[in-house]
Design a protein that fits this description.
It is a single chain. By secondary structure, this protein is of the alpha+beta class. It is about 50% helix and about 20% strand. The chain contains six helices and five strands. The chain has a five-stranded mixed sheet. The two termini are about 25 Å apart. One of its GO terms (molecular function) is zinc ion binding. This is Zinc finger SWIM domain protein.
Length: about 130
């Protein structure tokens, strides 16, 4: 794991422990993630993050709105995967970014406990996941 990831993980843990974020923490995350973090905060500020949880299992995935005019919705696991094009192009293929704006928006919403929670049956969640 890179030093940048270690620093970011430490910041995320502090945010998760208090469910709030300071200006200093925002500055550090912006330094690490750059323009993707700026874009993620816009998505976050507009309430573009849903956590879809299956019942009764409690398993969940995030659905994050894109910024284009089409307002696509991407499914993501904040620390591991996003269904957007940028994830595959910039992160997986080229290795130029640590994560995409959708992952960052989901992580920020989850860490501050401010995402929109949607409950579905485990069967509905499985169907949603089968489309990945």
């Amino acid at each position: 794991m890179s030093i940048s990831n270690l620093v970011a993980d430490t910041i995320w843990q502090k945010i998760e422990s208090t469910h709030s974020v300071t200006d200093d923490q925002l500055s550090i995350l912006h330094f690490i993630f750059g323009k993707n973090f700026e874009r993620a905060t816009r998505i976050f500020d507009q309430g573009g993050v849903k956590r879809i949880s299956g019942e009764p299992s409690g398993r969940s995935i995030f659905q994050v709105v894109g910024e284009s005019r089409k307002k696509e919705e991407y499914l993501c696991f904040p620390e591991h995967y996003c269904s957007c094009y940028s994830f595959f192009y910039d992160i997986v293929n080229r290795g130029e970014e640590l994560c995409c704006k959708h992952q960052l928006a989901a992580r920020l919403a989850a860490s501050t406990a401010t995402c929109i929670d949607v409950k579905v049956s485990d069967d509905e969640l499985a169907l949603l996941l089968s489309k990945l």
